[in-house]
Amino acid sequence: MQTILVTGTAGFIGFHLAGALLKQGFRVIGLDNINDYYSVQLKRDRCKQLDGQPGFHFYHADLADKARLNEIFAEHQFERVVHLAAQAGVRYSLEHPEVYIDSNLVGFANILEACRHHHVGHLMYASSSSVYGANKKQPFSVHDNVDHPVSLYAATKKANELMAHTYSHLYGIPTTGLRFFTVYGPWGRPDMALYLFTQAIFADRPIDVFNGGQMRRDFTYIDDIVEALVRLVNTIPAPDNLFDAMQPDPGSSQAPYRVYNIGNNQPEELERFIEVLENCIGKKATKRMQEMQPGDVPETFADVSDLERVINFRPCTPIEDGIANFVDWYKKYHGVS
Q1: What's the burial of 99, exposed, middle or buried (CB within 10 Å: 0-12/13-18/19+)?
Q2: Using omega within 30 degrees of 0 as the cis cutoff, is the peptide bond preceding 139 cis?
Q3: How many CB atoms lie within 10 A of CB 34?
Q4: What 8-state DSSP symbol labels residue 335?
Q5: Do 104 and 160 contact (CB within 8 A), yes or no?
Q6: Got the DSSP string for 25-51?
Q7: Could you give the 3-state DSSP secondary structure of residue 4?
Q8: Do residues 237 and 174 touch, judged by C-beta distance below 8 A?
Q9: Which residues contact 166 (CB under 8 A, 6 or more apart)?
Q10: For residue range 8-66, what is the model confidence (pLDDT) as tens digits?
């Protein structure tokens, strides 16, 4: 039975991944500081779903506490680490940049150091589609340069990839970066569009639609994200013997390092996304058109060919199914009809 650390287990993706790994027979150690960026109650309710399951143990701890982190690593001797804890949100980073430095940079450095000193066999970590920033070429490919982020959040995720590469190069730690594309589904984040829209429509409040609705997103259902992560846990990166340092490929390396897009490979118009949600709820939304927000991008579109080649899987859940599942969960969780 492999022992795996999942940071951010009170978070959306971490919660779902921990549950899936337990079903696969892993021993899962969860870690989260349960901060108040969004509903603490929702985070605690996620944790309640995991508490008591055989093979699961949870630590309420902060990544900034390096000594505590090393104690946990020393106690459990993890074979695998999936690092999903981070300060999320593009818009929040405009107002609270210091939080992103502490969590996404200092916290990630502590994870890297712990993996180094405790000989972890594979580190997977959350990156983001936001690293593509000002790129216009579609679909976004891991082989494209991503040196033009348009938010501090995106810059910290790009920095995480660079930091991971350094540790793969210097210390031989296999690392895999996970560029997630607009993840949604049951138990999702209340700061994300689907949750905000659903909440507003049920309460007969208008929804804010940015860029006049002229947005496209590669909405990716949570079950597809988790399936990809479970398959990647024991897919250990190896050095690319064909890597050409004269023409370096951003998606490869002489170190045991890889980055993958995990997206639905089918961007949807925001207006269509709202229409499907209205159909699932049975009520029309009142739309309040807004300008594009600083740090945002008009379109995301994932090239997942590398992911499919390596794990023989690509996300494919249509938004009609994914949104319906979310609305069903929302009504049960909040007791609305």
Answers
A1: middle
A2: yes
A3: 17
A4: T
A5: yes
A6: T-EEEEEE---SSS-HHHHHHHHHHHT
A7: strand
A8: yes
A9: none
A10: 999 999 999 999 999 999 999 999 999 999 999 999 999 999 998 999 999 999 999 99
Look up 221 and say whether it is catalytic: no
- Spatial CB neighbours of 113, under 8 Å, sequence gap ≥ 6: 66
Residue 316 near residue 220, CB atoms below 8 Å: no
Among the ranges given (93-97, 192-196, 217-221), the one the predictor scored with the smallest mean pLDDT:
93-97
- Give the contacts of 233 (CB within 8 A, at least 6 positions apart): 4, 21, 26, 80, 82, 122, 124
H or E element at residue 155:
helix 152-171
Residue with tokens 């993890």: 78
In the chain, the amino acid numbered 91 is R
Q: From residue 188, give the alpha-carbon distance in Å to each of 13, 43, 177.
A: 8, 10, 21
Long-range contacts of 130-134, Cβ-Cβ distance < 8 Å, separation of 24 or more: 130/90, 130/154, 130/157, 130/297, 131/157, 131/158, 131/161, 131/179, 132/297, 132/300, 133/297, 134/297
Burial of residue 211 (number of CB atoms within 10 Å: 0-12, 13-18, 19+): middle
Q: Sign of the C-alpha dihedral, residues 90, 28, 318, 198?
A: negative
First to last CA, the chain: 43
What's the average model confidence in pLDDT over 81-94?
88
Q: Which of 92, 100, 153, 260 is catalytic?
A: 153
Chain position carrying tokens 């939080």: 99
Q: For residue 218, what are its two tokens?
A: 């590669």
